[in-house]
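Sequence in, structure out. First:
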Amino acid sequence: MNPSLRHHAETTVDDVSERPTRTALVLGGGGSTGNAWLIGVVAGLFDAGIDVTDADLTIGTSAGSTAAAQFAGATPTELLAAVLAADVQPLTGPSGPDRGRNAAGSVADHLERLRALIASAVDQADLRRRVGARALELEAASPETRQAQWRATVASRLPSPEWPGRRILITAVDAETGAPIVFDRDSGIDLVDAVAASCSSGAAYRVDGHAYIDGGFRSNAENADLASGCARVLVLSPFGGRSLVPASWGTHLATQLDELRARGSGVETIVPDRAAEHLFGANGMDPTLRPPAARAGYDQGRALADRVAEFWR
């Protein structure tokens, strides 16, 4: 094993049980629009006087890993302003390593392939191995410049490339073994690489020779179980806790939340309003929908501020 990655095995936070006031913010995956919605919700809460980015622990998966890194380097208000001011253009075809994959038709194709892999898998571990094998095939067929371009894209989204002082966990999956992975500031890799790995839903992404895929395949798009031992857990789920895998696999968000509560954690969950549901899923990679997703999240954050304040403080 590469010495620089000696700490990258999965960890949990059971040790926090000795500190019953510890808080956790869980930022789920959900594509480009999901990232914008997360920023909007947190900005709405922030402008109402509740700063949930001061959580003792932040768990980020896929688009949520990007948000976690963004909150570490800029205020929610600054991030929201950047989303709303961005000059976004519709996706009309491939332009760069992942742009074609992100087009609406490609998202639909991706979901169809994923459903087929799920249908052939016996459990989540088997699914991770199957998705990893497919990601390695896509990596082998990708242009040599893809990795560098994807890393540059991720880096451009982060206000700072440095891991923050407070604890952030970023999820991923080892593409070669299917093993679940959790990165933190002691993992020996750059924050940019951790986020790029967590968001790699197509071809595998390599860090020091190790290949990784999207953290949403670890268990689900939220991975809220990593907050085990925290007294208060706030979960932001762009997908609304929905999952394509069978409930019998035991990886659904609802199952994880029940387990957290059974172990003594207080849990609150925020999901998109019904009126905003069309902004996610198959439309989740449409950049023109980022501003409305952010505004929808902001309105929710402001509307839920009193409830969250009572829970968080």
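Second:
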Amino acid sequence: MTSPYLQTMRAHQNPDLHQTLSHRIRDTLVRQIVAGELEPGERLVETRVAATFGTSQAPVREALRELETFGLVEIKPRRGTFVRSFIRETLRESYVLRAALEETATRLVLMIGNVPFDELRDDVERMQKAARENDTEAVGMESVMFHRHIIEAAGNDLIKRTWENLHIEARTSVTIMARTPDLRAIADDHQALLDSLSSGDVDAACALARQHQWNYSELPDDTSTD
């Protein structure tokens, strides 16, 4: 096994390697928290996590900071990092609300003729490229941008503020990492949303926008607990 010292040196020489280690640790911890393998209140010790992954503490520290942003851990000064309760129902409810917001935004942009087609096409193209490269984070980012373009084009500040208050980036990241979905399927889903907007059929486009979010409200093991 490569020593942590050598990995750290290589990470400094190659920032992409350091980023890959951090993201791999982050994604693994997300799945463990969502699956309940890491229990609420459990302390995540940097040295132990680093030893598990055979790396230095630097990428572990980066991963934990991102998990704090996602609301999955709490970093307490001089005490350590602790797993927070992952409330599956809260995530599910956020997608139900998001479905209503995006359905309404879709109706508005079609009724006022303000669909941002150029931006949406660019988003889908970048998403497809990221999917081919198996870049989960980029797919998630482009997905957020696609939906943000529709929300902003609707021209309704209350819808936009409510949508932003759902912390879309963090929730999208958690959902994608927890589900480990087919990235090309995600890109195809957004192409279908774009096609529905292009068709001009308001009711069909709204129904698809709503169903798109509902599909993401269920995490992998929900069927075994409902």
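Remark: The longest helix spans residues 88-111.
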